[in-house]
Structures are given as C-alpha cells and as structure tokens.
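Ticket #4471: structure export looks truncated?
Reporter: QA, pipeline team
Priority: medium

Steps to reproduce: submit the single chain below to the structure queue and open the exported record.
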Amino acid sequence: MIEADGVRLRRAEWEDVDFLVELLTNEEVSPFLAGAAARDRADLLDEIDRSLAHPEEFGRFLIEVEQDGGWKPAGALGFEIRNRRSRIAFLQRLAVHPDFRGRRLGDTAAGLIQRHLIFDLDYHRLELEIYGFNDRAIAHAERSGFVREGVKRRAYLRHGEWVDGVLFGLTREDLEQT
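Actual output as written to the record:
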C-alpha cells in the first residue's frame, strides 16, 4: 500500500471487482475510458489476477480515501510495462467515482503511483495517452507533472467520431526535480 494525505493506493483484489465494474461502467466515467478497456466482471478478475501475479509489470490499483475511521474506495488506476529494456510504463484508466470528484484525489493518486513506479519499481519513464476531448484529464496530467509530447491526430473512433490522442510523458529526472 502507498499512502499520503488521507489517500491510499492498494492493489485491487477479487473482492473489489463489484466496485470496479460499477465505477468503470458509470455513465459519467465510461465515455472517457479507452474503448478497449476491461469493464466486465470476468475481464476485470483476469486483470486483478495478472496484477497480483506480476506486480512489477502490471498493476490494477484502488484509490481509497480515509473516511469514518476506515478506507472507502473512491477510484482506480493502472499501469503496464510498455518497454522492459528502457524501463517504460504506460499509465491507464485513472477514474475517480463521481461522488468523490473535486477533491483532487486523482492528483494525489497520480503522485503516489509516479513515485512508486519510478522509485520503488525502477521505471525510468511513464507514458499516458488521453482522448483530445477529455479536457479535465488533460488538465490533470499537466498539473501532475506530465509533459505534453504530441498528438495522434484523429487516431481513435469514439462515439461515432474520429478523435485525437494526446500523448504525455514523465521521466525520472522530471520527478527528481520536483
């Protein structure tokens, strides 16, 4: 577990699958996730198994907040190895439940996962891609220290339209300077 400022990240476990299904199929969350992202129970259980079996290469985490003396699930995020030799991880599926928005939980969670991947798991570079229409996520990435590196123009068919993918990166050196 990774914890700071009343927020913690912990690896998802089987008993978390109902929360994950509800979160990732929520009508305020789902339109902003990758079209191929796992959303059903069986696929999410497979991802949880993979995260537990290969924790340095793949991760599915719950974002939890301290509440009433315990921890309450508030969101999720994940990563997977993109390039082993160059130690690059790809971050994906940051989602905060609508009931918890406006508290900057995503920003805190991003900082926690960045430090974990770079300093604990020895990745050198983190990458992510955001749909061009997702202004809130783009602002979050920039607040979280990611550097906008480019745009894949009209790369994805989402909701019947071709949309851009905005590419971001963060290196160990970027994180060491903060």
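Status: closed, not a bug. The export was complete when the record was re-opened. Leaving a note from the reviewer for reference: The chain has a mean pLDDT of 95.
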